Amino acid sequence: MRQGPSWFNVTSLVLGFSFLYLPIVLLVIYSFNESRLVTVWGGFSTKWYAELLNNQQLLDAAWVTLRIAFVSASLATVLGTLAALVLSRSGRFIGRSVFSGMVYAPLVMPEVILGLSLLLLFVAIDQARGFWTIMIAHTTFAMCYVAVVVQSRLAGFDRSLEEAALDLGCPPLQTFFFITLPIILPGVIAGWMLAFTLSLDDLVIASFTTGPEATTLPMKIYSQVRLGVTPEINAVCTILVGLVSLVVIAASIVTKRQEMRRERDMRQAEAQA
Questions:
Q1: How far apart are CA 183 and CA 258, in angstroms?
Q2: How far is residue 138 from each of residues 132, 146, 164, 204, measured CA to CA in Å?
Q3: Are 184 and 157 in contact (CB under 8 A)?
Q4: Exposed (0-12), middle (13-18) or buried (19+): which is 110, by Cβ within 10 Å?
Q5: What is the distance between the alpha carbons of residues 139 and 151, in angstroms, rounded to a whole number?
């Protein structure tokens, strides 16, 4: 007879999720606070969102952050997917251990060390720090996360589909775009979403690689929080939470539809066979 979860497991889950998500819920609630004191509820109001629209510095920082996140996530997805293909398909080759270690190093390397090393690199090549240096830094550390996600997707890939396409005369490049990529697309989308989210909320690496012309939103929020939390900070953080939630929901819907379409196509192929 199957037993339900014990009270200890239920209590642990409740306390764990409360510790993680209750501060976020309170932040969202107090973003609609009428009072300027963030710890004193003064009634419901949306005026801080209106004030946020008039804060040009925060808007500029948000626009820089979104552009960096989009570009770095896209580049990290391409590079991470290629790295996952090499690690999954190339077998044993000279330098595989070094290559895999270089791909996965940012996963275990402290962000302070990664940010400092990139700063020294940009100083050594006399590269002016700004938008592009932050983008390169975010691509560097986000690529490994994409490689892990896509490689796990490739682990259960049925290569007989590729072999059948190649036997029928399909070139390798077309086989990848018409056979392999549609099947692993949910993993690629999940990797892009993870890279976008990591870039969106990064503070440490961006602090090392930024310049006076590029200030990201996390850096702007951190600099203002040091002087005291304001309702505008709660409002902009709520918008960030909503944006990330929309990205997660959209990616989940796309992934689910891709899975359903693939299963339907496989059933139709089996029925025709």
A1: 8
A2: 10, 12, 38, 11
A3: yes
A4: exposed
A5: 18
What pLDDT, on a 0 to 100 scale, did the predictor assign at position 55? 80
Q: What is the distance between the alpha carbons of residues 204 and 182, in angstroms, rounded to a whole number?
A: 35
Given this model, what pLDDT does residue 1 score?
A: 47
The string over 9-28, giving b where at least 16 C-beta atoms fall within 10 Å of a residue's C-beta and e elsewhere, is eeeeeeeeeeeeeeeeeebe
- Of 26, 47, 21, 22, nearest in space to 232 by CA: 47
Tens of pLDDT, residue by residue over 33-68, are 887 776 777 778 888 888 888 888 888 888 889 899
Q: Could you give phi then psi for residue 211, rounded to 5 degrees? A: -135, -175
The C-alpha atoms of residue 230 and residue 154 are separated, in whole angstroms, by 46
Q: Are 188 and 81 in contact (CB under 8 A)?
A: yes
Instruction: Tell me the C-alpha distance between 102 and 110, whole Å.
Output: 14
* CATH 1.10.3720.10 for domain 60-272: yes
The helix (run of H) or strand (run of E) holding residue 181 is helix 181-200
Q: What does the pLDDT look like over 204-241, one tens digit per residue?
A: 899 899 887 788 888 888 887 777 767 778 888 888 88
Mean pLDDT of the chain: 83
Domain definitions of the chain by residue range: 60-272
Confidence tier at 74 by pLDDT (50, 70, 90)? very high
65 is written with which tokens? Answer: 């952050």
Task: Indicate the helix (H) or strand (E) that contains 30.
Answer: helix 7-30
**What pLDDT digit, counting tens, does each position of 107-127 carry?**
888 888 888 999 999 989 888
